[in-house]
Protein backbone atom coordinates (compact mmCIF):
# COMPACT_ATOMS: atom_id res chain seq x y z
CA UNK A 1 0.00 0.00 0.00
CA UNK A 2 1.23 3.45 -0.90
CA UNK A 3 -1.31 5.82 0.66
CA UNK A 4 -3.38 5.34 3.83
CA UNK A 5 -5.96 7.61 5.47
CA UNK A 6 -7.15 7.45 9.09
CA UNK A 7 -10.35 9.16 10.21
CA UNK A 8 -10.13 9.70 13.96
CA UNK A 9 -11.62 12.69 15.74
CA UNK A 10 -11.52 13.66 19.39
CA UNK A 11 -9.16 15.14 21.94
CA UNK A 12 -5.70 14.15 23.18
CA UNK A 13 -6.71 10.94 24.96
CA UNK A 14 -8.79 9.76 21.99
CA UNK A 15 -5.76 10.13 19.76
CA UNK A 16 -3.27 8.49 22.11
CA UNK A 17 -5.34 5.33 22.55
CA UNK A 18 -5.42 5.08 18.74
CA UNK A 19 -1.65 5.51 18.46
CA UNK A 20 -0.84 1.76 18.71
CA UNK A 21 -3.05 1.18 15.64
CA UNK A 22 -1.29 3.97 13.74
CA UNK A 23 2.08 2.52 14.73
CA UNK A 24 1.03 -0.89 13.39
CA UNK A 25 0.29 0.64 10.00
CA UNK A 26 3.63 2.44 9.93
CA UNK A 27 5.48 -0.69 10.94
CA UNK A 28 3.78 -2.73 8.20
CA UNK A 29 4.16 -0.08 5.49
CA UNK A 30 7.21 2.01 6.45
CA UNK A 31 7.37 3.86 3.14
CA UNK A 32 3.66 4.58 2.73
CA UNK A 33 2.16 8.05 3.01
CA UNK A 34 -0.08 7.95 6.06
CA UNK A 35 -2.48 10.83 6.57
CA UNK A 36 -4.95 11.60 9.35
CA UNK A 37 -8.13 13.62 9.61
CA UNK A 38 -8.22 14.48 13.29
CA UNK A 39 -6.81 16.64 16.05
CA UNK A 40 -3.71 18.43 14.67
CA UNK A 41 -2.33 19.39 18.10
CA UNK A 42 -2.44 15.83 19.43
CA UNK A 43 -1.43 14.27 16.11
CA UNK A 44 1.75 16.37 16.01
CA UNK A 45 3.16 13.93 18.57
CA UNK A 46 2.97 11.19 15.92
CA UNK A 47 3.89 13.41 13.00
CA UNK A 48 7.06 14.59 14.78
CA UNK A 49 8.16 10.96 15.06
CA UNK A 50 7.40 9.88 11.51
CA UNK A 51 4.26 7.87 12.22
CA UNK A 52 2.12 10.29 10.20
CA UNK A 53 3.02 12.25 7.10
CA UNK A 54 0.15 14.74 7.02
CA UNK A 55 -2.63 15.82 9.36
CA UNK A 56 -5.85 17.49 8.25
CA UNK A 57 -7.94 19.35 10.88
CA UNK A 58 -11.07 17.47 11.88
CA UNK A 59 -12.96 20.77 12.12
CA UNK A 60 -12.68 21.58 8.41
CA UNK A 61 -15.98 21.99 6.56
CA UNK A 62 -14.43 20.00 3.73
CA UNK A 63 -15.41 16.74 5.43
CA UNK A 64 -19.12 17.52 5.94
CA UNK A 65 -20.22 15.83 2.67
CA UNK A 66 -18.82 12.53 3.94
CA UNK A 67 -21.73 12.21 6.35
CA UNK A 68 -24.54 12.82 3.90
CA UNK A 69 -26.06 10.82 1.06
CA UNK A 70 -25.46 13.29 -1.74
CA UNK A 71 -22.64 12.55 -4.20
CA UNK A 72 -19.25 13.71 -2.99
CA UNK A 73 -17.85 16.91 -4.50
CA UNK A 74 -15.56 15.93 -7.40
CA UNK A 75 -12.39 17.21 -5.75
CA UNK A 76 -13.08 15.31 -2.53
CA UNK A 77 -13.99 12.16 -4.47
CA UNK A 78 -10.74 12.36 -6.42
CA UNK A 79 -8.66 12.96 -3.29
CA UNK A 80 -10.22 10.09 -1.33
CA UNK A 81 -9.89 7.76 -4.31
CA UNK A 82 -6.13 8.15 -4.14
CA UNK A 83 -5.92 6.18 -0.90
CA UNK A 84 -5.37 2.42 -0.92
CA UNK A 85 -6.70 2.01 2.63
CA UNK A 86 -9.13 4.09 4.66
CA UNK A 87 -9.44 3.32 8.37
CA UNK A 88 -12.37 5.08 10.05
CA UNK A 89 -13.42 5.54 13.65
CA UNK A 90 -15.98 8.19 12.80
CA UNK A 91 -19.56 7.95 14.12
CA UNK A 92 -21.64 6.34 11.39
CA UNK A 93 -24.95 5.27 12.96
CA UNK A 94 -26.83 4.94 9.65
CA UNK A 95 -23.90 3.47 7.73
CA UNK A 96 -23.79 6.38 5.27
CA UNK A 97 -20.02 6.77 5.54
CA UNK A 98 -19.28 3.07 5.06
CA UNK A 99 -21.65 2.97 2.09
CA UNK A 100 -19.42 5.40 0.18
CA UNK A 101 -16.45 3.04 0.05
CA UNK A 102 -14.66 1.61 -1.79
CA UNK A 103 -14.50 4.48 -4.27
CA UNK A 104 -12.49 2.46 -6.77
CA UNK A 105 -11.41 -1.15 -7.35
CA UNK A 106 -8.69 -2.22 -4.96
CA UNK A 107 -9.45 0.33 -2.29
CA UNK A 108 -10.02 -1.11 1.22
CA UNK A 109 -12.24 0.43 3.85
CA UNK A 110 -12.00 -0.70 7.47
CA UNK A 111 -14.01 0.74 10.34
CA UNK A 112 -14.39 0.48 14.08
CA UNK A 113 -16.88 2.00 16.49
CA UNK A 114 -15.77 5.41 17.78
CA UNK A 115 -16.28 4.34 21.41
CA UNK A 116 -15.15 0.99 22.85
CA UNK A 117 -17.56 -1.19 24.78
CA UNK A 118 -14.77 -3.24 26.35
CA UNK A 119 -11.18 -2.60 27.17
CA UNK A 120 -8.47 -1.79 26.96
CA UNK A 121 -9.46 1.00 24.60
CA UNK A 122 -6.31 0.67 22.50
CA UNK A 123 -7.16 -2.97 21.75
CA UNK A 124 -10.53 -1.82 20.40
CA UNK A 125 -8.85 0.58 17.97
CA UNK A 126 -6.37 -2.06 16.81
CA UNK A 127 -9.06 -4.70 16.21
CA UNK A 128 -10.15 -3.48 12.72
CA UNK A 129 -6.59 -4.13 11.49
CA UNK A 130 -6.77 -7.86 12.18
CA UNK A 131 -8.01 -8.64 8.62
CA UNK A 132 -4.67 -7.21 7.47
CA UNK A 133 -2.82 -9.61 9.77
CA UNK A 134 -1.83 -6.79 12.14
CA UNK A 135 -1.91 -7.30 15.90
CA UNK A 136 -0.20 -5.09 18.46
CA UNK A 137 2.64 -6.25 20.69
CA UNK A 138 1.88 -3.43 23.14
CA UNK A 139 -1.23 -1.35 23.79
CA UNK A 140 0.65 1.81 24.81
CA UNK A 141 2.99 3.43 22.32
CA UNK A 142 6.01 4.91 24.10
CA UNK A 143 6.90 8.42 22.93
CA UNK A 144 10.53 9.42 23.40
CA UNK A 145 10.96 13.12 24.21
CA UNK A 146 12.53 15.16 21.43
CA UNK A 147 14.73 17.14 23.84
CA UNK A 148 16.95 15.87 26.67
CA UNK A 149 15.38 14.88 29.98
CA UNK A 150 17.08 15.97 33.19
CA UNK A 151 18.63 12.80 34.68
CA UNK A 152 17.79 13.97 38.21
CA UNK A 153 14.33 12.82 39.34
CA UNK A 154 11.80 15.58 38.77
CA UNK A 155 8.81 16.51 40.93
CA UNK A 156 5.63 14.55 41.26
CA UNK A 157 3.39 15.97 38.53
CA UNK A 158 -0.30 16.39 39.39
CA UNK A 159 -3.00 17.05 36.81
CA UNK A 160 -6.10 17.94 38.86
CA UNK A 161 -8.49 18.18 35.91
CA UNK A 162 -9.84 16.51 32.80
CA UNK A 163 -12.17 17.36 29.95
CA UNK A 164 -15.24 16.60 32.09
CA UNK A 165 -15.95 17.97 35.61
CA UNK A 166 -17.73 14.75 36.56
CA UNK A 167 -14.44 12.87 36.22
CA UNK A 168 -12.61 15.21 38.61
CA UNK A 169 -11.78 14.83 42.29
CA UNK A 170 -12.46 18.18 44.05
CA UNK A 171 -9.70 20.70 43.41
CA UNK A 172 -9.38 21.52 47.11
CA UNK A 173 -8.64 17.85 47.83
CA UNK A 174 -5.85 17.81 45.26
CA UNK A 175 -4.28 20.87 46.86
CA UNK A 176 -4.49 19.28 50.30
CA UNK A 177 -2.90 16.09 48.96
CA UNK A 178 -0.12 18.01 47.20
CA UNK A 179 0.96 19.63 50.47
CA UNK A 180 1.26 16.21 52.13
CA UNK A 181 3.35 14.47 49.48
CA UNK A 182 7.01 14.01 50.34
CA UNK A 183 9.31 15.89 48.03
CA UNK A 184 8.51 18.55 45.44
CA UNK A 185 5.22 18.53 43.50
CA UNK A 186 4.02 20.52 40.48
CA UNK A 187 0.47 21.14 39.26
CA UNK A 188 -0.28 20.86 35.55
CA UNK A 189 -3.01 23.35 34.66
CA UNK A 190 -4.33 23.26 31.12
CA UNK A 191 -7.11 24.83 29.10
CA UNK A 192 -9.91 22.84 30.76
CA UNK A 193 -8.76 23.77 34.27
CA UNK A 194 -8.24 27.43 33.44
CA UNK A 195 -11.76 27.63 31.99
CA UNK A 196 -13.11 26.95 35.50
CA UNK A 197 -12.71 28.95 38.67
CA UNK A 198 -9.32 28.48 40.29
CA UNK A 199 -8.90 28.71 44.06
CA UNK A 200 -7.75 32.14 45.24
CA UNK A 201 -3.96 31.62 45.48
CA UNK A 202 -3.87 29.87 42.11
CA UNK A 203 -5.99 32.55 40.47
CA UNK A 204 -3.54 35.20 41.65
CA UNK A 205 -0.58 33.13 40.46
CA UNK A 206 -2.20 32.73 37.05
CA UNK A 207 -2.68 36.47 36.72
CA UNK A 208 1.01 37.07 37.34
CA UNK A 209 2.25 34.01 35.45
CA UNK A 210 4.00 32.72 38.56
CA UNK A 211 5.79 29.39 38.32
CA UNK A 212 5.02 28.44 41.92
CA UNK A 213 2.49 29.07 44.67
CA UNK A 214 2.85 28.82 48.44
CA UNK A 215 0.17 26.93 50.36
CA UNK A 216 0.85 27.01 54.07
CA UNK A 217 4.45 25.94 54.56
CA UNK A 218 4.70 24.19 51.18
CA UNK A 219 5.59 25.56 47.78
CA UNK A 220 4.01 23.89 44.74
CA UNK A 221 5.31 24.30 41.23
CA UNK A 222 2.91 25.45 38.51
CA UNK A 223 2.96 24.42 34.87
CA UNK A 224 0.54 26.57 32.86
CA UNK A 225 -0.79 25.16 29.57
CA UNK A 226 2.49 23.55 28.51
CA UNK A 227 2.90 22.55 24.84
CA UNK A 228 2.50 18.81 24.46
CA UNK A 229 6.14 18.13 23.61
CA UNK A 230 7.26 20.06 26.70
CA UNK A 231 4.68 18.26 28.83
CA UNK A 232 5.89 14.90 27.49
CA UNK A 233 9.47 15.83 28.43
CA UNK A 234 8.41 16.87 31.93
CA UNK A 235 6.42 13.67 32.39
CA UNK A 236 9.35 11.54 31.25
CA UNK A 237 11.50 13.11 33.96
CA UNK A 238 8.89 13.09 36.74
CA UNK A 239 9.14 10.82 39.78
CA UNK A 240 5.43 10.05 39.49
CA UNK A 241 2.18 11.30 38.00
CA UNK A 242 -1.19 11.75 39.70
CA UNK A 243 -4.37 12.48 37.76
CA UNK A 244 -7.75 11.34 36.49
CA UNK A 245 -9.13 9.64 33.41
CA UNK A 246 -7.73 12.25 31.03
CA UNK A 247 -5.61 12.74 27.95
CA UNK A 248 -2.70 13.89 30.11
CA UNK A 249 -2.85 10.57 31.95
CA UNK A 250 -2.54 8.73 28.64
CA UNK A 251 0.41 10.97 27.78
CA UNK A 252 2.00 9.99 31.11
CA UNK A 253 1.63 6.35 30.05
CA UNK A 254 3.28 7.13 26.72
CA UNK A 255 6.13 8.75 28.66
CA UNK A 256 6.56 5.64 30.82
CA UNK A 257 5.78 7.57 34.01
CA UNK A 258 4.52 5.62 37.04
CA UNK A 259 1.59 6.93 39.01
CA UNK A 260 -1.95 6.79 40.29
CA UNK A 261 -5.17 7.67 38.47
CA UNK A 262 -8.44 8.47 40.23
CA UNK A 263 -11.48 7.17 38.37
CA UNK A 264 -15.04 8.39 38.78
CA UNK A 265 -17.88 7.31 36.47
CA UNK A 266 -15.72 5.91 33.66
CA UNK A 267 -14.53 2.30 33.61
CA UNK A 268 -10.81 1.83 34.31
CA UNK A 269 -10.97 -1.56 32.59
CA UNK A 270 -11.54 0.39 29.38
CA UNK A 271 -9.84 3.73 29.92
CA UNK A 272 -6.90 3.14 32.25
CA UNK A 273 -3.73 2.85 30.18
CA UNK A 274 -2.86 -0.88 30.19
CA UNK A 275 0.53 -0.55 31.89
CA UNK A 276 1.45 -1.96 35.29
CA UNK A 277 3.14 1.18 36.62
CA UNK A 278 -0.04 3.29 36.37
CA UNK A 279 -2.63 2.15 38.92
CA UNK A 280 -6.29 3.09 39.23
CA UNK A 281 -8.19 4.03 42.37
CA UNK A 282 -11.99 4.05 42.20
CA UNK A 283 -14.58 4.36 44.95
CA UNK A 284 -17.97 2.70 44.63
CA UNK A 285 -19.50 5.82 46.15
CA UNK A 286 -17.98 8.15 43.57
CA UNK A 287 -14.99 10.47 43.51
CA UNK A 288 -16.44 12.79 46.15
CA UNK A 289 -16.27 9.98 48.70
CA UNK A 290 -12.51 9.52 48.30
CA UNK A 291 -10.64 11.15 51.16
CA UNK A 292 -7.21 12.73 51.13
CA UNK A 293 -5.80 10.08 53.55
CA UNK A 294 -7.10 7.30 51.26
CA UNK A 295 -5.47 8.78 48.19
CA UNK A 296 -2.26 9.54 50.07
CA UNK A 297 -2.11 5.93 51.25
CA UNK A 298 -2.61 4.75 47.66
CA UNK A 299 0.32 6.96 46.59
CA UNK A 300 2.73 5.51 49.12
CA UNK A 301 3.48 2.25 47.25
CA UNK A 302 4.97 4.40 44.47
CA UNK A 303 8.69 4.59 45.26
CA UNK A 304 9.12 7.60 42.98
CA UNK A 305 6.42 9.52 44.84
CA UNK A 306 7.66 8.45 48.25
CA UNK A 307 11.27 9.50 47.80
CA UNK A 308 11.99 12.97 48.98
Describe this structure as you would to a colleague:
The chain is an alpha/beta fold. It has two domains: 3-132, Rossmann fold (3-Layer(aba) Sandwich); 154-306, Glycogen Phosphorylase B (Rossmann fold). Helix content is 32%, strand content 20%. The strands form two sheets. It has a seven-stranded mixed beta sheet, with helices on both faces. A five-stranded parallel beta sheet has the order 3-2-1-4-5, with helices on one face. α7 packs across α13 (292-299) and α10 (228-237) packs across α11 (247-255). The longest helix is centred in the first third of the chain and has 10 residues, at 19-28.
User: What series of H and E elements makes up the topology?
Assistant: EHHEHEHEHEHEHEHHEEHEHEHEHH
Share of residues in helices: 25-40%
Q: Can you give the mean pLDDT? A: 93
Q: What count of structural domains?
A: 2
SS summary, helix count: 14
Outline the low-pLDDT stretches: 304-308
Which structural class do you get from the secondary structure elements?
alpha/beta
Shape: elongated
Spatial strand sequence of the major β-sheet: 8-9-7-6-10-11-12
The number of distinct β-strands equals 12
**Any idea of the CATH class of the largest domain?**
Alpha Beta
> How large a portion of the residues is in β-strands, by DSSP E?
15-25%
Q: State the fourth-level CATH superfamily of the largest domain.
A: Glycogen Phosphorylase B
What about the largest sheet?
Answer: 7 strands, mixed
Rounded radius of gyration (Å): 21 Å
Amino acid sequence: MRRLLILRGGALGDFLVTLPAIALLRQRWPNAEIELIGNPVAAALAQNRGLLDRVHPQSSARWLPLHGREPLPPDLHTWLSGFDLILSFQPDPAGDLAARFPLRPGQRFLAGAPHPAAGPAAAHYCAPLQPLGLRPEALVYLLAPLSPVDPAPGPVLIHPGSGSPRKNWPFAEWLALATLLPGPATLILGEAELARSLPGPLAQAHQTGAGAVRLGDRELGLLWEPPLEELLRRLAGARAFLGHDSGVSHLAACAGTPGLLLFGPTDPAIWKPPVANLRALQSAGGLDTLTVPEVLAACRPLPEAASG
